Amino acid sequence: MSKFSDHNFKGEKALVRVDFNVPLNDKFEITDDNRMRATIPTIKKILSDGGSAILMSHLGRPKGGPEEKFSLKPLVKHLSDLLGGVPVFFANDCIGEQAAMTANMLRPGEVLLLENLRFYKEEEKGDEAFAQKLAKLGDVYVNDAFGTAHRAHASTAVIAKFFAPDKRMFGLLMEGEVASAEKVMHDTQKPFVAIIGGAKVSDKILIIENLLERATDIIIGGGMAYTFMKAQGGKIGNSLCEEDRLQTALDLLKKAEAKNVCIHLPSDSVIADKFDANANTSTAPSNSIPDGWMGLDIGENACEQFSNVIKKSKTILWNGPMGVFEMQKFQHGTKTIAEAIAGATQKGAFSLVGGGDSVAAVNQFGFADKVSYVSTGGGAMLEYFEGKELPGIAAIKG
Ligand code: AMP
Q1: Which residues does ligand 1 sit against, CB inside 6 Å?
Q2: In CATH, what number does 188-385 get?
Q3: Which of 21, 75, 153, 229 is most open to solvent, judged by the fewest CB atoms within 10 Å of its CB?
């Protein structure tokens, strides 16, 4: 593979896989353009070198044929604005004559956006012939779509083989994501704490199992903590519990002990008499929650307990909130953890926040620029930390 920043795109047509899977309202207006913004530096570098950029993306989940509501056309004007007025052409089809002709005529400094890749079912199937047709459009392949790096699709993985190693590379966004993930996983400064929260144990078993091989400490918060509490004989009232995962929770605790990994569960909880923003609240030890009450956030002692672990760590990975942070009464735990991570980062720790809801939380509480890296790829990041090889990364590295 080639390094993006070292590559000179002068005179080249760069075929760039971006993640422009942005939400559109019923007037086809973009309601959140973060994914587009994230890849602008990559496009700008190609253009300023004297190259042109051919962008390909998916949008939504079309059923395998063209559907107006999933067209990328409404993005053209905004993309041009984000690039400072650069001309952006659009091809109504991602392959075929029009795409090939427009790509051919593209001049340095110009951009072509191709229509939704998923209008072809071949995209998600990872079809080789389809990938080859796409590959013909560009001289060099750049993957900047970390959010789909865990999918072995035609445009994210299969396509790379049609480019020589020095003509395929990560874009700046993807480069940052991969470097941060690798720093946590392979270049780990100890102590390493993984903070895992969110609703369900079942979603996080693989990541916890993999982290048991690497972490010094694992903090478990959020709704999933109560399955662990109950498995150990605790009373959890109406708190979230996955009855069919009680044994899994015990097994994880046993494995952690054998591997000398310290698992931290919240000693106390903020409890509520119903799942409601205006519920009556109180606090209780997390293993003796009264009947009719449920744990919706970690308590003050747990905040201190977890913050102390975070403060002494040199590497921090955070995936999943500590409580129902969407409701004001239950956001204190998540906020406190974000604050502790920011503090540790300021003192030199490397911190990576990955996974939809913890990312939303750091953004909401204003901590995004106080941690080392905020990942844009929820599912991809999770699979990376589950120890899986991501096809989008492997294909570039070759
Ligand atoms: P996940 O997608 O698995 O990371 O879960 C995130 C969701 O878990 C958020 O919407 C939180 O509101 C929810 N959550 C966190 N803690 C709790 C809890 N104690 N009880 C119920 N839901 C929770």
Answers
A1: 198-200, 203, 222-223, 240, 295-296, 320-321, 323-324, 326, 357
A2: 3.40.50.1260
A3: 21
